Amino acid sequence: MTQSLELWSIRCFITLAEELHFGRAAKRLNITQPTLSQQIRKLEASFGVALFHRSTRSVEMTVSGEAFLPLAHDALLKLDEAVLVSKLAAGGFAPGGEQLKIGAIDPAAFQLLPLILKRFRNRYPETRIDVKICDSVEILRALERGEFDVGIMRPPTNVNLIRFRPLMSDRIVAVIPRQSVLSRRPTLHLHDFIGHRVFTLDRFELSTFRAVRDRVVESGIVAEQSIKVSNTTAALAMVSAGLGITFLPEWITSIVQDNIVLRRVEDLIEEISIGIAWRADNPTPGVLPFIEYAELVSSAASLSARNDVK
Is 175 helix (H, G, I), strand (E, B) or coil? Predict the structure, then answer.
């Protein structure tokens, strides 16, 4: 390689790798498609290899592109962290021996929280960490009482003193027993599930699951009334036993067994978000740095989730 890589070209590559669509990637980057194509060609010329296969209908990464992606993403993440650390130092934020009390929901514990804790503790090893796993309602109440400093949770409805920043979103995917004929279909639409045993998660305090239930009914699927579940673990147990098909957030990729297949449904585009919440009047020094680190690493978790389920 005869010239140094430009950070903008690498950002363009990562965005296109996430979207695998020039139009969507250009829109995210706020540039034109020809400009994006030029940046990708420039990067490929620097490497001397093709990073993407292009056709009039699709964009796919080459073997070289797939090899470069995790390293490129990690390099930019480290650079962004360097910028963040400089800004925090300039603002006088220097967490030390204080205790940081964190509440997190199950999906965050499996996916996002470990990434945040790893980078935060590497930078601030003296901060004592206390983590408890509970649901979003419990986290919100504990934040209001001052029992938690931060919470990684679903978006709250009544916030009062609570501040909230979205971190990442999970698309809702079909959770199918491997023996089902639907697990082998090349593409799936909601009407494909008509005539199959389908149940939905009874978490109607969350708008996403209400929307999923509505979409299921509107598509003509008769939802199974003999199965009632209100949490992800119970729903997975039902599918694992072959009792039905359901729809859950794609974070479950990290915990599903081999007898379950996760598939995206073309006309089911609902997503459910996770974010970080805190009290606006919390004086604990580690709160703001932890929030900033959460935002920093959430993009890495989002990329992983997008690539795990097809």
Answer: strand
Q: Please report the sign of the dihedral spanned by the C-alpha atoms of residue 56, residue 60, residue 65, residue 69.
A: positive
- Measured CA to CA, the distance from residue 85 to residue 147 in angstroms comes to 27
pLDDT tens for 167-197 read 988 889 999 999 999 999 989 999 999 999 9
CB 144 within 8 A of CB 161: yes
SS3 call for 68? helix
Quote the strand ranges of 70-219, DSSP E: 99-104, 128-133, 150-153, 162-177
Spatial distance between the Cα atoms of 240 and 234, rounded to a whole number of angstroms: 10
Q: What gap in Å lies between CA 13 and CA 65, rounded to an integer?
A: 9
**Which tokens in the block code for residue 28?**
């995210």
pTM of structure: 0.67
User: What are the backbone angles phi and psi of residue 283, rounded to the nearest 5°?
Assistant: -90, 0
Question: CA triplet 125, 84, 143: central angle to 5 degrees?
Answer: 65
279: β partners: 162
